[in-house]
Amino acid sequence: MVPETVMRHRPTLEASVEEIIEALRDVPAAPSTLCALCYLKNRAAERAIKALYTELVNDYDLRLRWRQTHGFCQRHSELASRLGDPLGTAILYIDVVEGFLKKDAAELRPRRWPATPRAPILGKTCLCCEDEAGAEKRYLKAAAASMHRDHIFLEALKQSKYGLCVKHSALLCSLVPESESVELREENRRRVIILRDQLAEIVRKSDYRFQHESRGEEKDSWLRALQMYSTI
Ligand SMILES: [Zn+2]
Ligand SMILES: [Zn+2]
Question: Cα(36) to centroid of ligand 2, in Å?
Fold first, then answer.
């Protein structure tokens, strides 16, 4: 039986269209993540780190997964430095360092000449990246299923302030039949055109002849462009 603490902290593997709709409605303003699916993906990574720190000692499978990696990737190391703590990180990285030393000692054994170049000692993909990718797939699937079933997702997308980033729009389009993706493509194109016009407005108002004009909707469009076209 799974201990109660493990059940409480282990990240959920469910992905519902309601969560996506909520994220479409509530994502914070730029420079935070604006795309609902990016937001849910990031949230999955945060939950994975929190679960790792909370359940490290209790959850054998999780610790085993961790030991097969070489720590976090650069992006998730930064996240862990914000969400983690000294003791948890020390316990986690003693595992990593011990694993490295063991492999390194095996590599130091002399080999017969000529020897093929040694492959770098690297563990499996960052555990957080794995959980993040899993969550991304589940949410994309939930959105695609909703598009097939009804108009709930598409309506929420149209009414949302920021919509989806280009990467997630393209991924979602690839998951649904051509006939179902038309409306989604049109909606994405509408937003991209607005963004293009707002960026052009920033450039126009930087001209000395128009510098006196007050800033409008376009003022944070450069931050939105950075967010919506980032590919991580
Ligand atoms: Zn996105
Ligand atoms: Zn990572």
Answer: 19
Neighbours of ion ligand 2 (CB under 5 A): 73, 76, 126, 128-129
Which whole-number Å values give the CA distances from 104 to 40, 127, 172, in the listed order? 38, 22, 43
Ligand that comes closest to the CA of residue 40: 1
**By the 8 A CB rule, do 51 and 9 touch?**
yes
DSSP 12: P
**Please, are residues 19 and 52 in contact by the beta-carbon 8 Å criterion?**
no
Q: Is the pTM of this model over 0.85?
A: no
The two three-digit tokens of residue 156, written as one number: 């929420």
Q: What is the three-class DSSP state of 227?
A: helix
How far away, in angstroms, is 224 Cα from ligand 1 center? Answer: 12
Question: Residue 168 CA: which ligand is closest?
Answer: 1
CB 21 within 8 A of CB 163: no
SS3 75: helix
Q: Which ligand is nearest to the CA of 129?
A: 2
Render pLDDT for 36-48 as a digit per residue (tens, 0 to 9). Answer: 999 999 999 999 9
Residue 228 CA to ligand 1 centre (angstroms): 7
At which residue do the structure tokens 């994502």 appear?
Answer: 27
Cα–Cα dist 74/45, whole Å: 13
111-139 tens-digit pLDDT = 777 666 666 656 678 999 999 999 999 99
Domain ranges of the chain: 4-108+122-180
